[in-house]
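Summary for the steering committee. The consortium agreed at its last meeting that each partner would contribute one worked example illustrating the joint modelling workflow. Our contribution is presented below. We chose a case with several input lines so that the handling of multiple components could be demonstrated. No manual editing was applied between input and output; the record is shown as generated.
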Amino acid sequence: GQQLNQSPQSMFIQEGEDVSMNCTSSSIFNTWLWYKQDPGEGPVLLIALYKAGELTSNGRLTAQFGITRKDSFLNISASIPSDVGIYFCAGQVSSGNTGKLIFGQGTTLQVKP
Amino acid sequence: ETGVTQTPRHLVMGMTNKKSLKCEQHLGHNAMYWYKQSAKKPLELMFVYNFKEQTENNSVPSRFSPECPNSSHLFLHLHTLQPEDSALYLCASSQASGRNNEQFFGPGTRLTVL
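What follows is the complete predicted structure of the assembly.
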């Protein structure tokens, strides 16, 4: 079945540092979504990408939809302690109308004040 | 209430119990989803409902039985579960189950099966 490879699996950084994580797939997607999950909560949508090459920002977060439509990255600039959590990418399959999302394994981010 | 709500937030049950999880969305969406989230695993899609009709059953064991009485409510009925079913069960909703499928999640129900 389709799989997403998300890396890195975990990161431990100093407050103020920039962070980059990415997802790759052997399949083409027509939508990429990035979510953040805090402990004990459900994932919260951060950024949605719909076109190959699209670069979208949400505050200190920037995400890009890869040109090949098989990858996406998320950057966080000037990290702060509340950025701690698990970040998930999700890709929507390009065929059919079921809108099924495939999720990456997640990147656990820890920020040291 | 806004967004997607789930009750209960925590549930402990024995293997012979019958319980139900409830999800309600206040976003005017037409599609609702159940996911299972286990430690160290990606989110696993269980069921999809589109305009109250089930459109996806991702090979889920019959001890999990979904119910969608209307576009705003989704239930997951649990019966004779196994300890390995212990996980965070997440409900999500989206405008429709199609392109540009931005799904919004509830806080989840943390289920422990003894």
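The mean pLDDT of chain A is 91. Chain A touches chain B at residues 4, 30-31, 33, 35, 40-45, 48, 50, 88, 90, 92, 97-106 (CB under 8 Å).
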